[in-house]
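Researcher: Please generate the 3D structure of the following complex. Treat every line as part of one assembly.
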Amino acid sequence: MKRDLTVSILIGALIVLLLAGPLLPRWAMFLINVSLCYGLVVLGMMLLMRTGLVSFGHGLYYCLGAYAAGTLDVLFGISDIAVMLLAAIAATGAVSTLLALLLRKYRDIFFAMLSLAFSMILYGLLVKTSALGSSDGFNVAAKTLFGVRIAGTEFERYLIFAITVVTAFVAAICIHWYRGSHRGRLAEAIRDNELRVEYMGASVANTVHINYVMSAVLAGLGGALAAISVGHIDPEMAYWTTSGEFVFVAILAGTGNVLAPFLGAFIFETIRSFAYEYSPNTWQMALGISMLIVIMFLPGGLWSLFTRMRKTA
Amino acid sequence: MAIVLEARGLNKSFGAVTAAEDINVGVEGDSIVGLIGSNGAGKTTFVNMVTGYLKPSSGSIVFGARDITPLAPRQITRLGICRSFQVPQLFNTLSAYENLLVGVGIVASGGSKWADASRHAGTPGETVDSILERFNLTGYRDKPAGALPEGVRKLLDIAMAMAVKPKILLLDEPTSGVSADEKFELMDMVMEAVRAQQVTVLFVEHDMDIVNRYTHRVLAFYEGRIIADGEPGVVLDDAEVRRYVTGEARAAGRGKHAAH
Amino acid sequence: MSQLLAVLIDGLIYSSWLFIIAVGLTLIYGVMKILNIAHGSLYALGAYSAASLAGYWINQGHAPMGSYAVMLVAAILVGLIAGPVIERGLLRFMYGKDEIVLVLVTYAVFLILEDFVKLVWGVDPYFLYQPYSLLGSFDIADLTYPNYNLVLFAAAVLIGVVVAWVLTRTRQGKMLLAVIHDREMSAAMGINVGRVYFITFTVGAILGALGGALTAPMISVQPGIGAETIVLAFAVVVIGGLGSLPGAALAAILVGLVRSAAVHYRPELDLFSIYFVMAIVLIVRPKGLFSIPEARKI
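Model: Done. Output below.
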């Protein structure tokens, strides 16, 4: 059954990545690390899209998670990864729960634009906050994990990588199980016909709210892990073009399976790193053209290629 | 039989248009009631008010012992009133199986909020398969709802309404869009499923043969009022009904002229 | 007192600018139901074309007053070329798809054009200050304003009046209004909807480019101005009500004044103020200030 296969692949990937980690060259580990962070955000986008909503402002939570994690040091002198991740979850969870009260009443363009507005509000606020480095942002350094010092040790890179891999794994499994649950199934029903869902006794607003908060927390986790892995954060993370990138990868990946966002993010990051090195002024053009191709010929995203192959097999 | 649903002094106007005027109806449990009337007579308005889609300008609707007038459709469904739609409202990208699974899942996860005895026996999957069988839809199990033929979509729409185990089922023109030879088949199937679960049914219909054959009682609407209420034979023979609803008086007149 | 006056005047100038960049966007949405993200690129293309062509004109020693005409011509050319290319070459194959899908298509076009601009004009900023400083300045109370700002204000009013007049008084305009209200019905009445789309998009493109051209003398024209501007245009259009011209005007005035107040009294709330207004308006009127009511579904 397809569902069991997904779980097996996830477990397999977890084991492979954790074992192969120390053997990977620095750049490869970094690439996979960043892809997983991005993939977490896109996983959240996918959850929203399956509910019929496209957010053009998820950079809000990506940035919020990163800054929540990063400012712990500046404000409280805390630089423990576990605490940083918790802070990211708390911050994004709280903000999204609040914003969802408003956002869950909107659909289509208005939802997209309102979510964009909120992300730009954060951007605007951060850019004007000199205490946080304004548009330059500031550096983030995680020093301990569960109290154990890791900074400066030879395991630092690997441990951060491992944390990212484990987090991504846990998130993917949870969302996968959620999809198979009753409330998880409501998402697509809502996307297809909200009226019918209400007439069958379920609350559309509640499910939208829950899914929105979950997607926000996922984005926050991605942002926090990105902050820790990359070591630097800036307000650009909340700029609408960052959110646009998440939308692009979500479209590229498709909503078929929890593996898709990570795969899509990996392809995206790989292309981006190479495109940036060889031709930084055509990178966006390449993105735009790819998006058009996917929209025109692969409306289900790259993942639909897999499902198509399985059907003909 | 006890009265399960009661409309008291229902009125609804949209500006100068009166969609419902002083509707007083008591529906008995386990009965089958037909709602007839020409377009704009107020049948769908009545259904929309009972299911919570519209709020009456005045009057109340009582279900069991409870005033359901201010409630939202979702809450009314949970109390046990469900409807099907004139244009089938399905989840088009999901298969027939998945469509029903959503409904069954809603009941299964609803917890204590659902009306008593609303739980299904067996696993959700088994329940869905048995519903599919009851409505003769097993052949369409894995096909996306959007790709199904219209008659099948109508059946699925009704099956979905039944999946949440209602005490009262409102069907909005169940045989419209269905070919003449399939109408009786569809209604036979629906009535059988309904009788098995002791559901009270109200349905809006334009086809008088269907009304005659399946109802215990008929309510005839005209310009927002109920102009006749009784057994099908009696109501369909009523002079006002023949004039304003079934058009037979006019048709009879036409026939007379044509003979010359 | 003069602070209040400054807020008012700055507000109106900013409102004029906002209206100019938003009017093309709301027109395109109203007729075609497409939220055209590429509008930002047209703005950028207009700015770059104006900056480089007018700059060339002036450097060649021609009469500096002629630079205004050059800017205008540049904008119109950009719109006349880019508009049809985008609409005929890409968009028309996408009609009928989901609204959000169309937004993504325009987003893809935006990305492509962002790099197109970099390829053609490079990444270094362009400065076109002459048209701005040429006209001198005027004084109100103890405040001094460049006269160019009057040009901006006049342009906004002129554009608003002309577009409104064309929409309500000419036959073509009324056809546009008909399509805005009901596309299917218009087609059933014999209106060539495809042609209406083509004209609308091209006019919208010209207006977008015009916004860029008019702004070019006031800013440093560099990569990223399209991205900055489109989000502001969105805010104005959404606040005013998608597809509403009077809405866009009112929204521009509202946002302009609020932002001006923010800049003068609490500068850190600059960007915040615009989106704050958007959030508040949408809470009170979920479809914006002026919106078309929707009929019942079942």
